[in-house]
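User: Here's a chain of 245 residues. Predict its fold as tokens.
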Amino acid sequence: METKSRRGKTLSNIIAAILSVVLVFSVLLIGFTIFHDNYYQTFWVNGQSMYPTLNSQAAYENGELVGERDAHQKITTYKNLDYGIMDSHQKTIENLERFDIVVCFYGEDEYDYKIKRIIVMPGETFYITKDDVNKENNGNLYVLNNETEQFELIEQPLDDYFVHQGSYTDEYADENNPITLSDDEIFVMGDNRIGNHSNDSRKIGPINYSAIQGKAVAIEGKCEITVENGVYKPINIRKHWPRFL
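Assistant: Prediction complete.
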């Protein structure tokens, strides 16, 4: 009888321990979900300007995203697009660093946000080498070191192919004409610099720092995007383990 009693007590302790773990895990999960949903904002990647860093698994044809079309051949749904979260808190925006990926607008009248990588920070003087496509120095970034008064090569955290195959045809910010940004400007580019795949500061020039909406933190899912009367809306969101940027 004593042995059975001990066994019963041991089993009860095990069950109690399991229930305690489940309870703690549930509380933590609920707390994390509440924090996540209130602290971060979501975004989706509707384009190829940051390929292959973003939307690397989306379907492309002739350089354009593939989507379902209506009877008038207008695209109504894009599939398999990256769905992520961004930190839009002022403290985070004030402490951005070179090569952070940001969600931003290009102007006050813009309603369609862009997702780009910060290349040059406010107040910096820089130039980008412009040579024939595929030359090893094409697309190299040089930033002035104010202490040495010398331009220094800055290694860029993306595939060399997209750097050296990039198009750098603008008349500003080359070796003979370095540019100094004002204290409220940044220079942004997409990772996909080939051809016209990214409309960024190479074409439109620097953008205002105040145009930054947030720092992209992670890609944590896939989604489809429907287009109705020019309005984009995410549907069929499928979450996965976060890929931090």
